[in-house]
Amino acid sequence: MSSEEMRSQASDDESDYDNNSDDEMEDVYDYYYNNANNDDTECDDNQEEDPEFFSYDLLSVEDVERLLNENVEALCKAIGVTPSRAKVMLHAHDWNVASIVEQHNQDPNALLVKTHIIPKRRTADVPCSRNFVCSVCMQRCHTDVISTLNCGHQFCSECWEMYFQVQIKVGISTTLECMGKDCETLVPEDFVLSKVTSPALRDKYQKYTFRDHVKSHPELRFCPGPNCPVIVRADTVEQKRVICKHCRTSFCFRCGIDYHAPTDCDIIKKWLTKCADDSETANYISAHTKDCPKCHVCIEKNGGCNHVQCTKCKHDFCWMCLGDWKTHGSEYYECSRYKENPNIANESAHAQAREALKKYLFYFERWENHAKSLKLEEETLKKILQRIEEKVMNNSGTWIDWQYLLNAAELLKKCRYTLQYTYPYAYYLEKGPRKELFENQQAQLEAELENLSWKVERAEITDRGDLENQMDIAEKRRLTLVRDFLHT
């Protein structure tokens, strides 16, 4: 083989190796982003023991339309109504066909009144004649262009269309009411579509009605991910985590916002509202740096771990309470427990207000710290991926050999996320034995999480056994806390 051929062969071999490395790294990213978060939908032997397990299906728009149409057809056959009227009834009764049939069998007229298909007091029909004047446009109308709803109110078709155009443009669909004064009679879908001639408006109206039908269905929930077409279906409405495989958004099925166990839906809404009201305080805390408690050099945290080592004097301390890290773990992370003033009830109103602000700042700072740590640990993940790539390229194992580091990074993220949402829970939890138990478990999880975070940021292949042992401990602490306090 000539020297030219040898160089060509070497170049081809190097190209093949680079392509293989790229393929392996693509596998790493695919595993982490597509598989690491799918614990809730995969079947395994530990589902019954997992307090966060939740069975659900991810549906397309076509799947949901088919499901809704099946309910409409079933109701039409059961009580002999038109599809448009069936949709009004189903929307008003949470798509419960059996309940509607039962009410219909008891009193059909009462059901129609309850769902605003007909009014309580029916308006007498106005006989149409050549001299009929529309009360909206005040124009004489021929009988061919006059339309009447079940309530008996009559208007010309042109006024109906203009009215529907205005309502649809502002997003109103299933709640469209009659134009008659103080009339709450709902306008059925077929009536609207018979008057609206614009294809764009007809399409918009049908999209809005579909949206309203999904929102009114207790088993359905739109994925809140940006521009995500997925609709989630579950048999029960629970405060459980859903992870969309399409956009990877994680959210609570019950309320639709970010998953927030162990804090319940009502409490997390109160907490988020309070944080929004105190946004200036939040901005101050978010931007705040701290001084090393030993050499007093200004430090800005650049990692998720609260175990901080000063780059100047090498002093190890806790970012939250600035305590010496050597003795920090012996007190079960007392810095995560707020110590209330036992005599605050006897203090002045000003002192009580100051104490209330102090308490809020204590919990908010820890909430915000974990939120910031989650973002910083995304940088840690990138470093881990770069480290794996370097090891693989240097023939120091394959990406499968380094998989445990990705597993550790994912568990760290999961524990950090859960711990963040323990602080709103603790803030609103009444003082007593249950709060003491919660704070003990919270402190234990915090301690194991920081140990895991410290080891993940410094992990090498020789640390695999120690790291996996720490992962097992941290996950058991997390599951224990969630199991004991979720939904209680």
What does this structure look like?
- The protein has 488 residues and is mainly α.
- It has two domains: 59-216, Herpes Virus-1 (2-Layer Sandwich); 271-485, Four Helix Bundle (Hemerythrin (Met), subunit A).
- Helix content is 53%, strand content 6%.
- The chain is built from 16 helices and eleven strands.
- It has helices at residues 3-35, 61-79, 83-92, 97-106, 108-114, 157-169, 189-195, 199-216, 265-277, 279-287, 325-328, 349-393, 403-420, 422-428, 433-457, 464-485, and strands at residues 57-59, 146-148, 154-156, 220-222, 231-233, 241-243, 250-252, 290-291, 298-299, 307-309, 316-318.
- The chain has a three-stranded antiparallel sheet.
- Helix 15 runs antiparallel to helix 16 (464-485).
- The longest helix is centred in the last third of the chain and has 45 residues, at 349-393.
- The radius of gyration is 31 Å and the shape is elongated.
- Residues 1-45 have low confidence and may be disordered.
Model regions low in confidence, pLDDT < 50 over at least 5 residues: 1-45
Distance between the ends? 76 Å
How would you sum up the major sheet? 3 strands, antiparallel
- Residues in β-strands, percent: 5-15%
Question: Strands across the major sheet, in which order?
Answer: 1-5-4
Helical residues, percent:
40-55%
Average predicted confidence as pLDDT: 80
In the CATH scheme, the class of the largest domain would be Mainly Alpha
Taken from the alpha-carbon principal axes, the silhouette is elongated
